[in-house]
Amino acid sequence: MSASFRLGPDGIYRCDAFQRFLWQEHGFGTRTASPRVDITLRQIHSDRVVNANARSGDREEEGDALITDQTGKAIGVRTADCVPILLLDAKNRAVAAVHAGWRGSAGQIIQRTLESMEAAFGTRPADVHAAFGPSIRVCCYEVREEVAARFASLFPEWGEEEKVTRQLNLPEANRRLLLAGGVPPEQIFDLGLCTTCQTAQFFSYRREPENSGRMVSSILRLA
């Protein structure tokens, strides 16, 4: 586990680097606890970003990322192996919650979210801080070549040798997309825990496809 995160007595993980921004509240849920969430989406493994400012109900729309700069509105995503990513704009006090599965990651949903925050709130990538929650990690994520091919440009170290399967590092793919989008590396934080390995703490669709729950990750602008 990264030293940048800690598990609270309420059973929710929080990023230490986010805690200095007193105008926000956030959390990454576990099997036993979930942070507050007011608005989520009907997630469809897409690159669709929804501005939550004009929304008030839960699961009103389809998509895989929510953005807002309104106070008192906790936005979130549900995951059980996919990468939950929370973003905050330190200057404009805008926030985002992103659900990045392999399809959304291949469609660069994290970059679409940065673009949407810039268009809606004037967010600059240099002001963005990102926190990655629990997800399936490279140790457990074997994908076939047709999926891996969607990520070849992000992992040039793979070379051109064809393989039937590869181990895909989905959080690293999204980290590289954030870097390409202009987010400083020192402002990207990763919990580093694997949902598939950590049976006691996290739900995992890959491990429990017949009966997997979902964890909530959310962020809220307080002021």
Please outline the helices and strands:
Layout: E1 5-7, E2 13-15, H1 16-19, E3 24-28, E4 49-51, E5 65-68, E6 75-79, E7 83-89, E8 95-100, H2 102-106, H3 109-121, E9 128-132, E10 142-144, H4 145-148, E11 165-167, H5 170-180, E12 188-190, E13 215-221
Parallel strand pairs: 4-5, 9-12
Antiparallel strand pairs: 1-2, 3-13, 5-8, 6-13, 7-8, 7-9, 10-11
Please characterize this protein's 3D structure.
With 223 residues, the chain is an alpha+beta fold. It has helices at 16-19, 102-106, 109-121, 145-148, 170-180; strands at 5-7, 13-15, 24-28, 49-51, 65-68, 75-79, 83-89, 95-100, 128-132, 142-144, 165-167, 188-190, 215-221. The strands form four sheets. The chain has a six-stranded mixed sheet with strand order 4-5-8-7-9-12. Strands 3-13-6 form a three-stranded antiparallel sheet, with no helix packed on it. The model has no long low-confidence stretch (mean pLDDT 96).
Features:
223 residues; alpha+beta; six-stranded mixed sheet; three-stranded antiparallel sheet; 5 helices; 17% helix; globular
Count up the helices: 5
Spatial strand arrangement across the major sheet: 4-5-8-7-9-12
DSSP, total strands: 13
Structural class: alpha+beta
Average pLDDT, all residues? 96
Compute the separation of the termini in Å.
30 Å
Low-pLDDT runs of 5+ residues are: none
Q: What percent of residues adopt helix (DSSP H or I)?
A: 10-25%
Kindly estimate the percentage of residues that lie in beta strands according to DSSP: 25-35%
Largest sheet: 6 strands, mixed
Assign an overall shape. globular
| Rg over C-alpha atoms, rounded to the nearest angstrom | 16 Å
SSE run:
EEHEEEEEEHHEEHEHEE
